[in-house]
Amino acid sequence: MTARPLPPIDDDTRAYWAGLARGELLLQHCRDCGHVQVYQRALCGRCLGARVEHRPASGRGRVYSFSTVHRAPSAEFKEDVPYTVVLVELVEGPRMISTLVDAPPETVRIGQAVEIVYDRVSPEITLPRFRRAGASMTS
Ligand SMILES: [Zn+2]
User: Fold this and answer.
1) Among 62, 100, 111, 126, which has the minimal tally of Cβ within 10 Å of its Cβ?
2) Is cis: bond before 82, omega within 30 of 0?
3) Strands 26-30 and 95-99
4) Per-residue pLDDT tens over the stretch 7-20
């Protein structure tokens, strides 16, 4: 299998990736305005305050939108197609882009309940993916 490109880790995202590696999805909560954001930044995306802190999320949400990929974007993903890219609205509010596992594309529905799956792809990187909530455990 060709190695897939991995996301880079920097000072803003180090805590996020460390959380995923130990099985925790961390969201940033703004201590000034209460805004909750995913994808780590130095500042709050709403009020630009610097008092943001990480808190573990439930890992649960619903499919807000999705798109099934039939043509791999690059050679590294050829063995994965078709796969479904989902925009998940977390119960905490923010939306994040990921991919669905264990779900044939024709079965995916808007509003479907999903839960996070921690997919360790390297010692440093564990990717947050989602599966239909209540689906049987796989690893
Ligand atoms: Zn804020």
Assistant:
1) 111
2) yes
3) unpaired
4) 889 988 899 999 99
H or E element at residue 28: strand 26-30
Output the CA 71–ligand 1 centroid distance in Å. Answer: 39
Q: What is the pTM of this model?
A: 0.88
User: Looking at the predicted structure, is the pLDDT value of residue 136 above 60?
Assistant: no
Ligand 1 center to 28 CA (angstroms): 10
CA–CA gap between residue 57 and residue 38 (Å, rounded): 10
Domains and CATH numbers, the chain: 14-132 (2.40.50.840)
38: helix, strand or coil: coil
Strand, helix or coil for residue 90: strand
Give CA–CA dist 104/10, Å, rounded: 34
